[in-house]
Amino acid sequence: MIGRRVIPFLAELSFIILSLLTPSIQGFFVRPSAHCLHSTWGSLSRREAANVSEPAATRAPPRTGIAQKVLDMALASPLWKYLLVPQARAKIVATAEANQIPWTSAKEWISGEMQTEITADPPLSTTTIPAYYQQSFHAYDKGNLSWEAALEVEIASCAVGARNFPQFGSNGEEAFRGAFDSALIEAGAVVSKAGRILDMGCGTGMSTRRLAINFPQAKAIQGVDLSPYFVAVGKRLLELAPNSFHEGGPWVSNIERDARIEYLVGDASNALQLKELQEESFDAINLQFVLHELPPEVAILVVDEAFRLLKPSGQLWICEMDFEAPAYAAQRANPLLFSLIRSTEPYLDIYAESISDLFSYVRSKFQHVKVVPATGRHFALVATRRGTGYDGEALFEDQRFDEDGNYRVEDTHLQLWESKGNQKHN
Ligand SMILES: C[S@@+](CC[C@H](N)C(=O)[O-])C[C@H]1O[C@@H](n2cnc3c(N)ncnc32)[C@H](O)[C@@H]1O
Question: Which N-terminal stretch is annotated as signal sequence (predicted)?
Fold first, then answer.
């Protein structure tokens, strides 16, 4: 009896937690030690840039105590993996279908179109897959290194968007992404005519395709991702150019063929190894929802590599979760709740801890850095590279908060405790 009530409740909670992490789904955690929480960003930025500000003083409380230990044990136990995760996934599918998002048929469609490819592993690339990337992640045992993850990621993002932004229904993901498009422009993102853009950690191309639409003047938009499965699905979607179900098509968004887009399999932290990518050859490099999934030492390498790939005066664009925004900060201040959230993303805690260190590190390398809020929980950052010979201090414009200290964009995410049924509609 208790089981019949408690398990669906926990599954609902797990689903909500998966939903928080748009566009990611979920995963199992490796808890960072207290020692490494005071992050690599911090030590490197101090070493490399004596003139940038120190990280913000607010740090999350230590995660100790009996309740915390019990929760950590539960999250590491088979209960989570074998009972709650499947239930939560079933719930995501049901939520999608209840929002008219055709999860089952969209997945069948893309699986059918890729029947030949998915009977085998994708061709091995020369890229070495780092250890951090080989653990289970986002509810998939093999993380991003599986066909299932690659076939589902766009459908799941659409479902999560519908859950998180009920006022937009099945267009929630579109509204969410649109907020980043506008925020990047507000932060000063520009690309010159015939410019080249690189989308690092492009996944199946959700961010890459938007870049192509938003910057029609760009000559080339390349995407690089470590998962050959994601890249294969991204390439196939671009060939198929399906319509969205809103227009009677089989997919969850409209996809236009675009000969300017090229996807590559490779490690963004070692991107110059790829023969297609040359030093100082890009006008803009995009990192959309990538950094929170990386160990900090890898995130540093990725920012360094982006710097090398950018032309002098080129721009780095970062769109990310903002744990300095009150809505996420409040969740994080609750150690038990955040344990649950953290359990879905191995590096989220350390990322959350070190946002100001990330800003400091970017400031140490770039000439002008501007940060604006994109949603009530996310920021967009545009950093312009130092021109040759420039060695002055970076101009840092942090416009996330107004004069009264309020986050400038209202938090419109569905709150954790709200279900779609009791959400107030405007
Ligand atoms: C949350 S997804 C974001 C995908 C895409 N940018 C978007 O906005 O939908 C993060 C992506 O980063 C990729 N990734 C993680 N580490 C990487 C690395 N070292 N090099 C390239 N891609 C990486 C993952 O495979 C995954 O596709």
Answer: 1-27
Instruction: Write out pLDDT tens, residues 228-274.
Output: 999 999 999 999 999 999 999 999 999 999 999 999 999 999 999 99
Nearest-10 Cα torsion for 129, 342, 176, 189? -60
Cα(399) to centroid(ligand 1), Å: 26
Minimum-distance ligand 1 atom for the alpha carbon of 153: 9
CATH number at residue 9: 3.40.50.150
Residue 350: inside a domain: yes
Atom 11 of ligand 1, nearest CA residue? 201
Residue-wise pLDDT tens digits, 152-170: 999 999 998 988 888 898 9
| Tokens coding 15 | 């689903």
Which atom of ligand 1 is closest in space to residue 177's alpha carbon? 8
Is 399 or 336 the better-scoring residue by pLDDT?
A: 399
Lowest mean pLDDT among 218-222, 285-289, 401-405, 412-416: 412-416
**Cis peptide upstream of residue 61 (ω within 30 degrees of 0):** no
23 upstream amide cis, omega within 30 of 0: yes
Q: Which of 127, 208, 225, 345 to mutate to test the pocket of ligand 1 (most atoms within 8 A of CB)?
A: 225
Tens digits of per-residue pLDDT, 291-334? 999 999 999 999 999 999 999 999 999 999 999 999 888 888 87
| Distance from Cα 290 to the centre of ligand 1, integer Å | 5
For the chain, the 3-state helix, strand and coil shares in percent, each to the nearest 5, are: 50, 15, 35
CB burial class (10 A; 0-12, 13-18, 19+) of residue 73? exposed
Block residue for tokens 């076939």? 151
Planar angle of CA 411, 417, 422, nearest 5 degrees = 85
CA nearest ligand 1 atom 10, residue: 290
Spatial separation of the C-alpha atoms in residues 329 and 326, rounded to whole Å: 5
Domain interval for residue 210: 2-412
151 exposure class (CB count in 10 Å sphere: 0-12, 13-18, 19+): buried
Inside any domain, residue 418: no
Q: Is residue 225 part of a domain?
A: yes
**Ligand 1, residues 146, 227, 276, 290: which to mutate, most atoms within 8 A of Cβ?**
290
Q: How far is the CA of 203 from the centre of ligand 1 (A)?
A: 5
The answer to whether position 417 is within a domain reads no
Domain count, the chain: 1
Candidates 255, 274, 292, 293: which one to mutate for ligand 1, based on the most atoms within 8 Å of Cβ? Answer: 293
